[in-house]
């Protein structure tokens, strides 16, 4: 029987377990999902053409998170965590390794595009964790391909 935490698979297993917990909370409450997708700062006045700035009064943060979007995000996260858990156990299987690698690539693309292109996420504590985990894990998996996959 394989040793489950061999050769650094502890990271992949840990990320999977945290992701399962994140999926559960996405179904239960909106608070943490809204921290990631904190939205844009917009004026509360009726003048919609007013551009937000540090000196503009009456600004509020509008999060685009709805119960449906939170559950969809939770489902997507759960599916990714299952793939990553399989990869932690079958780290030497090139197909499973590639699938896990793609989960991090897609997650990274998603978070960066929501932050930099769509503007539904703002840089802060809620976004920093997923961005660091997805990009760091992706970089590590790419650099360690030859070590794990033979």
Describe the protein.
By secondary structure, this protein is mainly alpha-helical. It has one domain (7-148). 65% of the residues lie in helices and 5% in strands. It contains six helices and two strands, in the order ααββαααα. It has helices at 9-28, 31-36, 67-89, 94-118, 125-143, 145-148; strands spanning 40-43, 59-62. The chain has a two-stranded antiparallel ribbon. Helix 3 (67-89) runs antiparallel to helix 4 (94-118) and helix 4 (94-118) runs antiparallel to helix 5. The chain starts with 8 loop residues before the first helix and ends with a helix. This is Ergosterol biosynthesis protein. It comes from Coniosporium tulheliwenetii.
Summarize the biggest pleated sheet: 2 strands, antiparallel
Topology pattern, helix = H, strand = E: HHEEHHHH
Whole-number average pLDDT?
84
Number of strands: 2
What is the distance, rounded to the nearest whole angstrom, between the alpha carbons of the first and last residues?
A: 19 Å
Q: Give the strand order of the largest sheet, numbering strands 1, 2, ... along the chain.
A: 1-2
Q: Into which percentage range does the β-strand content fall?
A: 5-15%
- The helical percent reads 55-70%
Poorly predicted sequence stretches spanning 5 or more consecutive residues: 43-50, 55-59
Tell the overall outline.
globular
SSE-based structural type:
mainly alpha
> What is the count of DSSP helices, taking H or I runs of 4+ residues?
6
Overall structural domain count: 1
Q: Could you tell me the radius of gyration in angstroms? A: 18 Å
Protein name: Ergosterol biosynthesis protein
Organism: Coniosporium tulheliwenetii
């Amino acid at each position: 029987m394989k040793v489950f935490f061999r050769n650094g698979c502890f990271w992949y297993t840990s990320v999977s377990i945290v992701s399962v917990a994140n999926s559960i909370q996405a179904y239960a409450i909106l608070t943490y999902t809204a921290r990631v997708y904190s939205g844009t700062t917009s004026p509360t006045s009726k003048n919609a053409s007013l551009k937000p700035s540090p000196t503009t009064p009456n600004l509020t943060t509008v999060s685009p998170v709805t119960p449906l979007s939170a559950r969809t995000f939770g489902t997507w996260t759960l599916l990714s965590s299952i793939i990553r858990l399989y990869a932690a156990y079958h780290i030497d299987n090139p197909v499973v390794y590639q699938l896990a690698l793609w989960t991090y690539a897609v997650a990274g693309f998603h978070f960066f595009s929501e932050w930099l292109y769509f503007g539904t996420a703002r840089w802060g504590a809620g976004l920093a964790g997923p961005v660091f985990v997805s990009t760091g894990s992706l970089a590590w998996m790419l650099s360690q391909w030859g070590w794990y996959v033979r």
